[in-house]
Design goal:
Layout: H1 5-9, H2 13-24, H3 30-37, H4 41-53, E1 73-81, H5 88-96, E2 102-107, E3 114-120, H6 123-135, E4 140-147, H7 161-166
Antiparallel strand pairs: 1-3, 1-4, 2-3
Helix pairs in contact: 2-3, 3-4
């Protein structure tokens, strides 16, 4: 009997260990991961394919060091729109998608409408090229920016402990 959709999407302890290993090093071979999580390479391969098909594994990327490639300034910017009716939000979201310097954009509730994480080569590039372009987007009322002085913690690894409780 084929498991129902809910059962098919449950993660077991091997899946959770596999996801943790992939988050640490997605470049590792299935053999290497299998040794870490006590599965054969073929079992790892099947599980990875299933996790990809389920959309749990979105994609694989190389994480670059921004400073090493000349992007030494990072800013967190808070954007407030002039109005909250009409298409201002959609227009802003469409426009912001074309900014390669904007690494992340979140629509938020609170004092601002959007929070952006931005990288730039230096402060003048941030000010003259990125923030100036942001102010020209129709509907943008105000932008407040904080310049990051030091990176204390930066991680792409999602916590998985809550999954173990359900497994």
């Amino acid at each position: 009997m084929k498991p129902d959709k809910h059962e098919d999407s449950l993660l077991d302890g091997f899946d959770i260990s596999l996801l943790a290993a992939l988050q640490r090093d997605a470049h590792a071979t299935h053999q290497q991961i299998g040794e870490q999580v006590h599965l054969s390479a073929s079992q790892v391969s099947r599980r990875v394919q299933r996790l990809q098909a389920q959309g749990i594994i979105r994609r694989y990327v190389a994480l670059l060091e921004p400073v090493a490639i000349g992007l030494g300034v990072r800013a967190i910017s808070y954007v407030t729109l002039t109005r909250h009716s009409g298409d201002e939000g959609l227009a802003f979201e469409r426009e912001i998608a074309s900014f390669p310097e904007v690494l992340e954009c979140y629509s938020v509730a609170g004092e601002s409408d959007y929070i952006l994480q931005i990288v730039a080569a230096d402060l003048s590039v941030l000010s003259e090229q990125v923030l100036r372009r942001l102010t020209r987007i129709q509907g943008v009322g105000s932008i407040r920016s904080n310049i990051v002085l030091a990176r204390i913690k930066s991680s792409t690894e999602l916590p998985l402990a809550h999954l173990r409780r359900g497994a």
